[in-house]
Design a protein that fits this description.
4-stranded antiparallel sheet, elongated, T9SS type A sorting domain-containing protein
C-alpha cells in the first residue's frame, strides 16, 4: 500500500480527513482514529478499500461529525490488510472551538535554571505540566491550577538537567494537551 497524501481540516464543527493511495495490495481498509493528546487514539469509523488490490490511484474521505469538539484533536489512519497487518499514518492536528484559544509559550529559549510559561486558557481549572527529555523520559512535573484567560507559570529548579532538547507538555482539565520544545543551554 502506498499512501500519497493524508490531510485533516476543519469544516465548521466537523473535521474532514482525506487521503489518497497510489496502489493497494491486500488492503482491507482504513480506520479513522482520533486523540485529544496525540498519544492515546480511539477509532471513529472504518472506510473499506474500494478493492483489496489496485494499481490505480484512489482517494478516500472520512468526516468526523462528533458533537462537542473543542481544543486540538489529532487524527491518524490505521490501514488494515486482509491478512491482519497494520500501518499507521499521521497524526494531523485540527483545532476546534473555544479551547482552541488555549496557547502556551515558553521563555527563555534556550533556558538555564528555569522556564517561564505564558498561558492563555479558555477555562479555569487544574492542569498537569510535564517536562520530558529528548528521548521522552519524564524529568519534572507540576500540578498548577490555572485561571481562565492569561496566566504565567514559573518552572524552576532545572539547573541540574543535562544540556539538550526538552518538551514541555501542558495538559488542561478538559483533557487537551499542548507541547512546546525548548533547549537547555
Amino acid at each position: 500500500m502506498t499512501l500519497t497524501s493524508f490531510t485533516a481540516v476543519a469544516q465548521g464543527a466537523d473535521a474532514v480527513l482525506t487521503w489518497a493511495t497510489a496502489q493497494e495490495l491486500n488492503s482491507k481498509g482504513f480506520e479513522a482514529q482520533v486523540s485529544g493528546d496525540g498519544t492515546t487514539f480511539r477509532t471513529l469509523g472504518f472506510v473499506a478499500s474500494v478493492t483489496p488490490n489496485s494499481s490505480e490511484a484512489r482517494t478516500y474521505q472520512y468526516r468526523d461529525a462528533e458533537a462537542g469538539k473543542q481544543g486540538t484533536r489529532y487524527y491518524r489512519l490505521r490501514q488494515l490488510d486482509v491478512d491482519g497487518k497494520e500501518s499507521f499514518f499521521g497524526p494531523r492536528a485540527v483545532a476546534f472551538g473555544a479551547s482552541a484559544l488555549a496557547a502556551v509559550q515558553g521563555f527563555p529559549n534556550p533556558f538555564g535554571s528555569e522556564i517561564n510559561l505564558a498561558l492563555q486558557t479558555a477555562a479555569a481549572g487544574p492542569a498537569a505540566v510535564s517536562v520530558f527529555d529528548g528521548v521522552g523520559r519524564l524529568v519534572r512535573t507540576w500540578q498548577p491550577t490555572l485561571a481562565a484567560g492569561a496566566s504565567s507559570l514559573r518552572l524552576g529548579d532545572l539547573q541540574d538537567l543535562p544540556h539538550g532538547l526538552y518538551v514541555v507538555q501542558v495538559r488542561y482539565s478538559d483533557g487537551q494537551a499542548q507541547r512546546l520544545k525548548l533547549v537547555k543551554e
